[in-house]
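Encode chain A's predicted structure.
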Amino acid sequence: MHLDFTSHQGESILIINGSGGVGSMAVQLAKLAGLTVIATASKPASIDWVNQLGTDYVVDHHQDLVKQVRALGFKNVDYI
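Encoded structure for chain A:
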C-alpha cells in the first residue's frame, strides 16, 4: 500500500476487513492521510474495534456494499 501523506481532504477510501491486521493498519494510515474512511466489519467486537481506530463509517461486508455506501451519501469512493 502506498499513501501520499499530502492532504486527501474530501477523498474517501473503502477498507475491506478494517478490523483485521492489515485492515486496521490501513484505517490508521488512511486517517493520517486525511481520507474519509469506510471500513467493513460485521461482528459487534469488530465494529467497536474499527470505531476505536477512528474509522468514519462501518459497513457490513456480508451485505451489499454498494447499497450501504450509497446509503451513507457517497456516489462512489476514491480508493479501495
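The chain has three helices and three strands.
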